[in-house]
Amino acid sequence: MRTALLSDVHGNRHAFEAVLAETAEQGVDAVWCLGDLVGYGADPNACVALARERCSIILAGNHDLAVTGDLSLEEFSRGAALAAHWTQSVIEDEHLEFLRSLAPEGEAEGIGLYHASPRDPIWEYVLSSMLADLCLTAQPERISAVGHSHVALSFSRDQEAEASGTPREAGEIADLAGGEWLINPGSVGQPRDGDPRAAWLLLDTGAWTAEWRRVEYDIEGAAAAIRAAGLPGSLADRLGYGQ
Ligand code: ZN
Predict the structure, then answer these.
(1) 135 by DSSP, 3-state: which?
(2) How far is the CA of 29 from the centre of ligand 1 (A)?
(3) Distance in Å, CA 184 to ligand 1 centroid
(4) What is the whole-number distance in angstroms between the Cα of residue 152 and the centre of ligand 1?
(5) Which of 72, 181, 199, 238 has the fewest beta carbons under 10 Å from its own?
(6) Domain coordinates of the chain in residue numbers?
(7) Pairing mode, if any, of strands 2-6 and 30-33?
(8) Concatenated DSSP letters for 89-122?
(9) Topology, domain 2-240
(10) pLDDT tens string for the chain (243 positions)?
């Protein structure tokens, strides 16, 4: 089965449409979304509608849970809290109800799926080998997929060894056939690993490979929509830097 793994769309319709077009071109069997459909970007309704139409699995992310009111905004940065309030003011009831129905973790094809981490599906940022080691020990499946950090990467471990990991650039392919893995496709709508292109991952659970991919999209369009919505300009600017 060939699956498109994606995460952290964050209301960026321009990026999401570009990624979904490429997943269709690639003829994937399914699209799985690891959460944070909303927050930061200017098109939350369009993004939830697209996800409901195209994704067979959708997890809840911390920003989704902030918009539904299930998570307090106290732990959010100022920009993130402003964007969550704004999203609450424009989100359609039907989409809000849908977000309320989502869970931050799941499982499919033997892969553990988490918005953030196997230890803390909502909040933990897995960006160090030390934390990855703890996650690999905690995860029930051999392979976990996470989002949340907005950094395309992988950590892996063989039997006794310690976990090691690396950021992943466009075109890199990992052989998942052996060992324990934690993989992150990066972010569709707000990449933070220095590559501003929209990120996704092509997962083949027959061949057991993961291919990190990036897609060009209309960054100016997404940034203009953020400014037009009256959201903080910094949320528009960072799209161009991929930070
Ligand atoms: Zn996110």
Answers:
(1) helix
(2) 25
(3) 12
(4) 12
(5) 72
(6) 2-240
(7) parallel
(8) HH--HHHHHHHHT--SEEEETTEEEESS-SS-TT
(9) Purple Acid Phosphatase; chain A, domain 2 (3.60.21)
(10) 999 999 999 999 999 999 999 999 999 999 999 999 999 999 999 999 999 999 999 999 999 999 999 999 998 999 999 999 999 999 999 999 999 999 999 999 999 999 999 999 999 999 999 999 999 999 999 999 999 999 999 999 998 789 999 999 999 999 999 999 999 999 999 999 999 999 999 999 999 999 999 999 999 999 999 999 999 999 999 999 999
CA of 159 to the centre of ligand 1 (A): 31
User: How many angstroms separate the alpha carbon of residue 84 from the centre of ligand 1?
Assistant: 12
Q: How far is the CA of 63 from the centre of ligand 1 (A)?
A: 7
Give distance in angstroms: CA of 174 to centre of ligand 1: 23
| Residue 176 vs residues 11, 186, 205: alpha-carbon distances, Å | 31, 18, 9
